[in-house]
């Protein structure tokens, strides 16, 4: 299942399939080991190695090896998603490494000979704050290891057109600006041609120092969740060509409102981890599509993609089937000490840049986010919060900036956010543990929150409840409708929707969570039974709990 953009004019091979595989437990891989590894197993790419019998639940380094046949010249290997630390070897020579867990990372190098070569990828899933600073064992989701997503081999010509980034200049009149990303030995001026929506090509002369062009769309149909109309632009040069898909739409805020194509829209959403107990974070295409269908069936118009850059295939489907998306960098409750670690800050910023590069043309994405529940009430976090907001804003693509805070009362960076997004669990992590069924806490907390934000001078910004939810053990029913029963979760979801959607002061909500997913039992045994985060409205196999129909009902009643 290839994702956009589409490349033509050179050989591109998707290296999914069986690879030789070996696993070494415990130690971080050292370079001199590379030639000594013995391969007795095979594995599939993509997949999570730590879900497979040979190394289930273990931490160490997985080695993937295969042979590839290539030309002499420029090669680009694209790893679309891995965890946590990846080193790439070509005929035993190291050509690059990356610790940008979940990011799509390209590795460019030269093949000096035409013919067969050995490709070896070493992927460690060891927690190590300096080598892989983006991911930590206290995060409330399982840190899987492996090549989660496809690996692609591009045999590039001497120069190539790699991407065509589309910016909407004026959606109504259909004016767009297309910025090309080129690489290789480029001529100063290069003949090119472009085609919009498959219309006949029009010739032009590209200036490789400033490869930008303003184009006029003939078909100006706008993209929206109800009418997800998509357009394409193809840019052809003598050396290669690229086709990108995009949508015409505007998104902006006006006071407390969110306007999509100039019309007010409220967000009926849910948070979704890209995960399944059988596949980890390496989902098969049929499941990705099924997830999107379930989101639509629920009546969602919005999905908050937590807590890392997403699989482009999911985003492609959101574009196609019409869902508004929040995509964010990898983070979870990061304390000040992480912000003091220069490796953490550097990786966050690099991941934000990659996020833009990967996702720039998805019309579904309306919000760029970062650092879920970082300790944004500490002065030590100020610098990185504003740097990340600035990087994402520099995409100048009209998307909105936000981050999910759990410190709305003393958060120091709220002024950076176009939408104030707050994670809250009143009545689940109840303030009065002696009260049975503390559902009343939801309304009280939402009122208090709005007052507190207004007092802090944010009364005129859109406020999104970016997480709210309750856990339920699937199949466990209780006539007292207490905590952990499907009944309590259903009542909780109903009450959250009543309070939040019933109050126009809120932009909307993203219920926590889509489906139950694996986390750690050790530190959290008491509140994470089954070693899962049980707040899904679907269980870990996508079977509905009572809350599913309740949410569907609430979302279908709301315009
Ligand atoms: C937080 C966090 C989620 C999840 C949730 C919960 O808000 O952002 O990832 O851990 O709490 O289930 O408690």
Architecture blueprint of SSEs:
Elements: E1 6-8, E2 12-14, E3 17-25, E4 41-45, E5 60-70, E6 73-79, E7 82-83, E8 85-90, E9 93-98, E10 105-111, E11 115-124, E12 146-147, E13 151-155, E14 159-170, E15 175-184, E16 189-196, E17 202-207, E18 212-216, E19 231-236, E20 241-246, E21 251-254, E22 257-260, E23 263-264, E24 267-273, H1 285-297, E25 302-306, H2 312-321, E26 324-328, H3 336-340, H4 342-359, E27 365-369, H5 382-393, E28 400-401, E29 404-405, E30 420-423, H6 440-455, E31 463-468, H7 486-501, E32 508-511, E33 517-518, E34 532-533, H8 546-557
Parallel strand pairs: 24-25, 24-32, 25-26, 26-27, 27-28, 29-30, 30-31, 31-32
Antiparallel strand pairs: 1-20, 2-13, 3-4, 3-5, 5-11, 6-10, 6-13, 7-12, 8-9, 8-11, 14-15, 15-18, 16-17, 16-19, 19-20, 21-22, 22-23, 33-34
Helix pairs in contact: 1-2, 4-5, 7-8
Bound molecules: alpha-D-galactopyranuronic acid.
Describe the structure.
It contains eight helices and 34 strands. By secondary structure, the protein is α+β, with helices and mostly antiparallel strands. It has a nine-stranded parallel β-sheet, covered by helices on one side. It is globular and about 70 Å long. The two termini are 34 Å apart. Alpha-D-galactopyranuronic acid binds next to loops.
Essential attributes:
559 residues, alpha+beta, nine-stranded parallel beta sheet, six-stranded antiparallel beta sheet, 8 helices, 34 strands, 18% helix, 33% strand, binds alpha-D-galactopyranuronic acid
